[in-house]
Each structure stands twice: as C-alpha cells, then as structure tokens.
Amino acid sequence: MKRLFSIVLCVSIMLGLGSAIASASPLELTMYFPVNVGGTAAATIERFTGDFNAQNTDVRVTPVYTGNYDDTITKIQTAIQGGNPPDLFVSLATQRFTMASTKMAMPLDDLIALDPEGAEFIDDFIDGFMLDSYVEGAVYSIPFQRSTMVMYYNKDAFKEVGLDPEAPPQNWVELVDYAEKLTNENRWGVGLALNSGSAQWAFTGFSLQNCTNEVGLMSADGKKVYFDTPENIEALQLWLDLQNKYKVMAPGIVQWTDLPTQFLAGQVAMIYHTTGNLTNIRNNANFEFGVSFLPAGRQYGAPTGGGNFYITSGISEERQRAAWEYIKFMCSTELAAQWSIETGYVATRESAYETDLLKQYYTDFPPALVAYQQLPYAQPELTTYSAAEMWRILNDNIQAAVTGEMTAAEALKNAQEQGDELLFDFQ
Amino acid sequence: MEIIKKHAITSFSIFIALLWLTPLVWLITTALTKATFNMSFLPTTAFTLENIEYVWSTIPFGQYYLNTITLVIITFAIQFVTSTLAGFALAMYKFKGQALVIVIIFMQIIIPNDVLIIPNFMTLSELGLIDTKLGIMLPFLGSAMAVFLLRQSFKTVPRALAEVANIDGANLWQTIWRVYVPCAKAAYMSFAVISVSYHWNNYLWPLIVTNSITNRTLTVGLAYFAKSKEADMQWANVCAATLIIISPLLLAFFVLQKQFMNSFVSAGIKE
Fold this sequence. Notes:
The structure holds 2 protein chains of 2 kinds. Chain A is α/β, with parallel strands linked by helices.
C-alpha cells in the first residue's frame, strides 16, 4: 500500500512538473521578412529578434527570411491560403490597401487602444512615414524599413566647371542649368533610374514638387489617381527634355542598381537615389560628394518608400498581443536608431533623433541628416488598391514616353485611363 | 569546298564556345577580385578571397550545401525507381485505359510547376509536411518527363533481347534491371542532367515550403545578395555567392562532359 502510494505520488509529481513545463513553454510566433539591402540586414533583424526573445521568455519569435518583396508576398499568400500563415510580416507600405481588401492583414487600432502606451507610440512616428499606414482611417501597418530619395552630387565635378560645391541645385531651373554645365563627353549632368519599379518612385517626387493639389499622383484613400494633370505632364516633359532637348541625361532607361555605380565611376555628376545607398557611396567614392534635397519645382517634394510591419488577420488574441509587443520592440526608439545606422534606412521615430547614438552619427557624418530634414516635404510613393498593377501601368507608360513611342501628355492620359479602369471596382 | 565547310564549322563552334564562356569568366574574375565600382570585363583590381569569405560567413552556406545535395540525390534516386517502373509498364504492357493514363501523365509536362505552388502547399500543409525536406521533394518524386523519356527509350529495345533473357531464366525484375535499364543509359543520363540542375537551381518552391535554415537550399542563400535591390548591386558578393553555388555542377560538367554529350547525341539519334 505504501509502495502504491509513493508510486502515485511520484507519478503525480511528474505530471505536475510536466504540465508546469508545458505551461512555461513560450508562445511561438513566426515572422516573414524580406531583405532589400544586402545580407547583413537579415543578420541585424535576427539579432534584434534574439534580444526580444531573451527579454520575453513567454514569447518566442522566429524570423524567416522570405526573399525580396515580391517573393515575400507570394509566400504570405501561399501560406495564408494553405492555412499555415505567419503571425506577422514585413511588406511594402504600398501593399496595405491590398492587404486590407484581401483580409490578409488586420487593423491594429484595437491593439493600440488596449496598450496604455499605444497612442504615444503611434504619435512618435514621423508623419511622412505614418501617412501610409492607414486604410479607411484604420492603422494597418507600422513603419519599419523606410527610405526616401535624396540627390547625391559630385563636388569635385562642381568645382571643375566653376560651380559652388556647397550650393547644389535648389530648383528645376538650376537643375537644368547645372546639368548643362556639368555635361561633357565623358559625363552626364544628371541621372535618374527609369526602369520598372524605379520610375514610379522618382516620378512621385517630381509630381510632388510640381503639383498644385498637394497630393501628387493619388488620393490618400488610394481610390483615385491624378496622372494626367498639366503639372504631372510638365514633370514628365522635364524628364524627356533632360534627355532629348538639353541632352544632359543618358538617353533610354538606366537601371536603378547601375546608377550609383555610374556616379561612383564619375560618369554622372548628380543622381537621384535612395538614402539607403549613403553608406555604399561614402565607402566607395574617391571624390568629395554632397547630399542634398531634391531640387524643387513649385515646392520641395520627395517620395518615401519601403516596408512596414503587418499582423496577419485571423490569429488568436494572445498571438496578436504578442506580435504587437514584438513590433513595439523592433520599432522602439533605440532600435530604430540602431537599425538606421546599420542599414541606411531612415529612422522612423521622432524620438530616435534625440538619442545619443543618432546624434553622434550625424555629427560624424552630416550628409546623413539631409534625408531627415527633407522628410517634412516627403510623401508616400504611388499607393492605391491593386498597387502592383497600378505601378505597372505608370511604369509602362512613362517608359513608352522615354523611348519615344508617345508624348508625355499621351503617355499620362493613357496611364490615367488604365488607372481609372483598374480602380473602378473600388469606388 | 569540304575544307572551307569544316573550317567554318570549327570557327563557328569556337565563337559559340567563347560566347558561352564570357559570363563565366566575368563571374569568376569578379568573385575573386577586390570589389570595385568600375565595371569592366577583365579584372582591374587585386586578387582576393574576401568576397567568398564574406558571403560564406554571412549566410550558412555549409548547411545549405548539405541540404541541396541531400535533396537532389534523394529526389533523383526516387525518380529513377518510380519512372523506370512507370515507363516500363507503359512501354511494354497493354491494359485498359492505357491511352488515358499516358495522356494524363504527359499533360503534366505542359503544366508549369509555379502554377502548382499553392495547391501543392495546401496538400503539404494538410499532411503536416511544411518546412521539411520531404515536403520540398514530395511533388517531384514522380516525373512525367522521365516517364516519357524512358517509355520512348524502352520501346526501342528489341523484344528479342528480353526474350533471350527470359529463356536464360531471368525474372521480370532481372529483365528490367539487366536488359532495359542498361539499354536506356542515354535516357537516364539526359534525365539526370535535367533533374539535378532543376532541383539544384529551384528557388521559389523551397523558399515557400521552408522556414528554417536546416531545410533551406543554396538558391535561398544566393537571394540574400542577388535580390537586394534597394541600394546598388554588389556584384562582387553576388558573383561570389553564385560561384559558391555553381562550382559543383560546373565541376561535374567538366568531368562528365563526354558522357553528357554522348547521352544527348545517342538519345537524339534513336528514332
């Protein structure tokens, strides 16, 4: 009898221990993330996530690298349809309308409201980045790996042709003027990448610089596009003129990834490119270079781009809360600053700019600050429902104008018609 | 006249060979020299192994190698068995609905694999095979292409050979293994090239089915570098990663090129 009792006791202790262990086993979350700036960014995300897991023993987030942005979308769609969705993921900010209309991602307002620090957290994001987190007034995504466009210029080339190296072009007139001076038989004055996937980004900037409607290419609700306004036609005409009339920009279509290479080789004196390229240019330029605002048309303007955090819809409340904590951790002031320095992305939180880390970085390397100073003039890149298709429409038509198949006005009228048709269902 | 023709053919082949060699030379020289922003065909910077080292240490290529090799070998081994048996049955036997079976199998050849990603994923999800090596391989364990190649090849083997084997007391297995398989060596060789290179290079499917490093393949490792387009292309790293991935296949090609060539030639010549 005694023996039986001790066996029962042993078993019950073991069972008790077992269940204690089971309840202490952490909640497993999966996060999909794309990498667009080389191998080390993935390592940084994994390191940050490791820190999060170390601090939160009850949650364990596994980051899963999922290729580039397009691959990531394919993987998320497949996983959701296959009933094996990630709990959260990073995708382009421009995907938010699609994410909302296909119910792939969930609105985050309830999570923000439940969190005592929620409102404060959201308020601290830079407006230019937070702008493209909303769908129909609800927050659907949180800014994470964000970039904007700046101008890089070759100070040595400026000196060579008698321009002031500390005074980059302020507006389109100066842009054309300087570019004409800088162009010679070995060098183009100015460079823009016009391949699909880049043309629409650069064009957002030019549209914002020239527009009189304050929104550039599209309405904030993503249901209307304004491609064929006289101001936008004028902006596209400027591109064509740079190539054909003034002959200060390489004819045809230069690839996004080739442009910095040409700049570093001294073949182009001024380029429009992402802030994400700053470290690369800093490390490789064998001449003095400067970073400046994009030259203004009627006003300053620049596009923002990049990826945000989303939480998958349909996961349990417990998981939602854990995912939210993770996002808050990854976007915390300190990590936002750290992430910016390590990857070249722009820090998304106002408070990040108050950290010693970023202050020191800007003191050591003032050109990095230009992107931040330009942010008040920056707005989201072309973002509508059916974003991928809309990008294709604008890119194709711009390229048709660049290759001389259509005039600027014809191309943008064409884009407008196709865009209206695409958005017809969402009105 | 004959001499001119011969020279023309030789110089044309040399031209084609050089054309084929060009990207390879650029790839290898770029991977093995110091990174530079000056793009040129021949290297202008010093020899270095830094690119390879950097790429190798950033991404767990060792693990990816092991995974890819395991996948490629097991997939081909199973395809070998399933396709031999299916090809043999379709070539040698008459049975009800044979035409239908052949049509269904061959229709699969014209369906691109990418279209099947979602349905395949859903099936694997129900089987609980997401993020496993078996999951990556399962959709490919039978191959319509191999069945087709082997069926055609088996049909050309004279029946007399099989009959002689039967008279000598060989059973069905022995007939297949000792008579038909050796006769179809060329077809096996051709299919091995197709299967191995396809699974070695496959990217999207392994990326979608797997989540953990222990199951991912070499191509996913390459994507970290080759698909990073936000800034500029770091060609030295892209080339270094590519070199790491293609070397085994390249080496295999150089060693086995005679056999490959023969197999394609003889597979083509047979009626």
